Amino acid sequence: VPAGKSPSLNLQSQIPKSPSSPAHQRPPLQLTPPPPPTSPFPSEKRKETATMGWLSSSSPEDQRSQEIRAGTVAPSRAERARCWEARDGYFACLDRNNIVDALKEEKAAGKACGAESKVFEKDCAAQWVTYFKKWRVQDIQKRQRIKELEAQGANRLDVQTDFTPRS
Length: 167
Description:
Structural class: mainly alpha
Shape: extended
Distance between the termini: 71 Å
Low-confidence stretches: 44-53
Number of helices: 5
Helix content: 40-55%
Largest sheet: none
Number of strands: 0
Mean pLDDT: 78
């Protein structure tokens, strides 16, 4: 649109004149067969693709571990405890090797703590692994900041939250 002029719409050219005009005719309808029926439940789809019948080479424990890793099933209390043990062992290895951020220093972490990392990643859901690694970095940074503030003379405040009614 040239400068200084407002855009105008020509609606008359877009409206068909009569039902018999070529602009009003539609192309012929082409019918395609419907897709095969599928379950509306994602878990049933996962079950179909996760196992290959009696030819499957994985044990039920391996399949359960893979489902937990993928986040398709919730871990039991014992499986969560196993995950936390693996996490603590992995973090202890990172501490021994002075590695703070395992996500940024992935090569160094893999070289120094490869075995612990494999156990950690096998026993925990993938999203948990990422969450714990990020949480560790933030926790270390928080502790360092608290030390800096205390060195500058700041007073430590212990804050407790309870949900008891105030009197």
